[in-house]
Design brief:
With 74 residues, the protein is an all-alpha fold. Helix content is 42%, strand content 0%.
C-alpha cells in the first residue's frame, strides 16, 4: 500500500475506520463493475499488428512459443 492517496491525502494519518469510510465513498462514485468496461482509445495501435511486426524480426522457430505464452490461459 502506498503511503499517500492519489488525491494527496496521507492515508497513514487516517484511522482504519476512516480509511474504510473513504473506500466506501470511493465505491459510491466508481462501481465495482466499472473495470469490466473497457473502451480503447481511437489512437491505440492494433496489438495484433504490433505482434506481427515483432514476429518478423524474431527467430521463426521461436515465434509459436512466444505466441503460446501470450495466449489466454484458462
Amino acid at each position: 500500500m502506498t503511503p499517500n492517496h492519489p488525491d494527496g491525502y496521507r492515508m497513514r494519518d487516517h484511522t482504519p475506520r476512516e480509511r474504510a469510510a473513504l473506500g466506501k465513498a470511493a465505491r459510491a462514485t466508481v462501481p465495482r463493475s466499472s473495470p469490466a468496461e473497457f473502451a480503447p482509445g481511437p489512437k491505440r495501435p492494433d496489438p495484433l499488428k504490433i505482434t506481427g511486426k515483432q514476429s518478423a524480426t524474431r527467430a521463426p522457430e521461436l515465434v509459436p512459443i512466444r505466441h503460446g505464452r501470450m495466449t489466454e490461459s484458462s
